[in-house]
Design a protein that fits this description.
single chain; alpha/beta; Rossmann fold; 2 domains; five-stranded parallel beta sheet; 5 strands
């Protein structure tokens, strides 16, 4: 049983992933897996060839600002970078699935719909939040300017599109109860797939 979990930048999908984990699901974080992949020797070579030596601060750390500036200002670079990283993340996910059979697996991915990962999911959940809140959260979390966050939001699939494609939506606008929404969806999924 595999559930895809996504949401635009600053929507709060990581909070929902933690709540689902508390409920007994196992979570595969695609973004964290991707960060690991950047340090595989072969992948590192390809990333440097695409985005330059400045992509790495040192042996252990990515230059996230440089990578982000490049890919968000030139969309073709984002597509090429995804083509390098995504196959590796898929391999890691296959291993995760084998290790967690008979469990509800949550695949957390920022690009669930953009990269058509949703096609391999049993159900999908989108975490949605108004743009003003999202911008405020990302500015505080990543130390970015209003314009930089807006650029990131514009580079992603519009939230409204994700909502249309999703099986379930959790609203994280600070005036709805996240736990209640998450528990209702979790119980609906368990019931639908006879997982009691």
């Amino acid at each position: 049983m595999i559930i895809g979990l996504t949401g635009g930048i600053g929507s709060g999908k990581s909070i929902i992933a933690k709540l689902l984990e508390v409920l007994g699901c196992v979570v595969f974080n695609s973004d964290e897996a991707a960060k690991q992949c950047y340090h595989h020797p072969e992948i590192k070579k390809r990333v440097i060839a695409l985005l330059g030596n400045e992509s790495y601060l040192n042996e252990a750390a990515l230059n996230k600002k440089h990578i982000s500036d490049r890919i968000f200002s030139e969309n073709t670079l984002l597509v090429k970078l995804n083509a390098i990283i995504h196959p590796e993340v898929s391999l890691l996910f296959d291993q995760f699935k084998k290790a967690n059979q008979n469990k509800i697996i949550i695949k957390e991915s920022a690009l669930l719909f953009e990269a058509q990962i949703n096609k391999g999911m049993d159900k999908t959940i989108v975490v949605a939040s108004n743009d003003e809140l999202r911008i405020k959260r990302v500015m505080a979390r990543d130390g970015l300017t209003f314009e930089e966050v807006q650029r990131k939001i514009k580079s992603q699939m519009p939230q409204e599109e994700k909502i249309k494609l999703a099986d379930f939506v959790i609203y994280n606008n600070e005036d709805e109860f996240l736990i209640t929404q998450t528990v209702v969806i979790y119980n609906t999924i368990k019931q639908k797939f006879n997982l009691f």
